[in-house]
Write the structure tokens for this entry.
Amino acid sequence: ASPPVKRARRAKNADAPSVEKRGGRYRSKCPVAIQERYERVLSQRFYMVERRREGNALKEEFNVLGSTGNIYTVVINHTPRCDCPDASKGNHCKHIIFVFIKVLQVPRLSSHWFQKALLSSELEEIFTSAPVAPNAVTNARVQAAYSRAMGKDGKLAYPGSSSKSAPSALQNKRMPGVDDDCPICYESMHEEQEKNLVWCAECKNMLHAACFAQCHCTRQHQDLSCVYCRAKWIVQTSTHATPVGTTKEGYINIAAAAGIDPVRDESICEH
């Protein structure tokens, strides 16, 4: 009998586009440990202090204030990461989840937010669908404390109408409804006391006073503007300082500025 004829291998098409490989194993469903951290993000309060992205790069960095007052750096790119102790152990920490869910507003039903590694197409979808920055930032004292720690101007900018140059009265203010959330911190403004809100003289929309100050306090040399319509906003300034510290692990800690307990609760995965 004649030997079997070997099939010729199909030549590779040099012009065919290469298929991107994921940098980690794909998770078809959210692991229990990550789901637990997700629940903590919903029940605790986190803030985005600062964010940085160059153009349309598939990478963005976020400085996040944790529940103990430490400032951690979260990087969202092909391999999302954070420099907190929990993430350093290989965990998908709460700070990463906060950025995905609250700041970038990745849908809860999406699988992107709990992946260890992302494809370029997934990152493009995330950044394209994300709200325009800024969206969730700290209060003015926290932002100023962080700015001083980083060698920036620590003056505070408070929006309001107590300045002599501010309008004496604003007509037709749009009071927040049941479904109206602050466009900066994502918390509800419904039934909020009016003294805790500020409003734009141009478009009459309201938002949290502290959140407005948080959003703009790093822009000391720029005119402040409405987050809704970008109209110029009149502010007053204050120079009161708030203590800034550094933990033994080397993290910037502004718990005093944030008004929170710097002692970590080891029972709730907060690191």
Summary: Residues 156-170, 236-242, 267-271 have pLDDT under 50 and may be disordered. The chain has seven helices and ten strands. The CA atoms of residues 140 and 214 lie 4 Å apart.
